[in-house]
Amino acid sequence: MLIYFILIILVPLYAQFKVKSTYKKYSQVANSSGRTGAQVAREILDSHGLYNVGVEETRGVLSDHYDPRSKTVRLSSSNYHGYSIAGAAIAAHEVGHAIQDQQRYAFLRFRHALVPVANIGSNFSWILILAGVLANLSGLLLLGIGFMALAVLFQIVTLPVEFNASNRAMDEVVSLGIIRNNEERETRKVLNAAALTYVAAAAVAVLELVRLVFIYTGMTRDE
């Protein structure tokens, strides 16, 4: 049990440390093409004929994302205006999601379909789980585990979506000459560090789900 709690605390902390330290390092290294993150995003989008997808600045740090509803790539201010390797990598990654959307990438469509049930699972699972444990009602606990499993499934499906977007990003920045030579290795480090946060989140979610299944098994055995 002690090892379990160490894992669910340390793994996310390490992932956050890794992404922040890597981003900080390469946000201070200029890319050789002299393009801002906004220019990188626009160039890749246009190369795929995605003229209808906008590129906007958004507040916050590492708040970059692609909004499929408004067809907009939103980049944090430092990445939008900056000329760094980190900014170029993150901009390309978010455009990778726009390309997935254009090509109706299966895992992205599946993740979008899971959003409503995943939100329900996240909001209600712990209420049912706590009530089931406190009242010693295995059926209620199992229902909570079922809801939680939907949220965990969303986390797992997110992994191929994010890794695929990163692979697309690398292909685009290399083929368009946005990065050159040793910048490929540095760009990959930024993308890998960002992906680590999703891996950590999925791993912790799976561990927690497994722990609850063991609790349910023990409860039904006692009954």
Automatic annotation (TrEMBL):
Q: Which residues cross the membrane?
A: 126-154, 190-216
Q: Which GO terms describe its biological process?
A: proteolysis
Looking up Pfam families in the UniProt record yields: Zn_peptidase_2
**Which keywords annotate this record?**
Hydrolase, Membrane, Protease, Transmembrane, Transmembrane helix
One GO MF term:
peptidase activity
Keyword Membrane listed? The answer is: yes
Recorded superkingdom: Bacteria
InterPro entries this protein is in? Zn_peptidase_2
- PANTHER family found in the cross-reference section: MEMBRANE PROTEASE YUGP-RELATED (PTHR36434)
Q: What is this protein called?
A: Zn-dependent protease
Q: Which organism is it from?
A: Peribacillus deserti
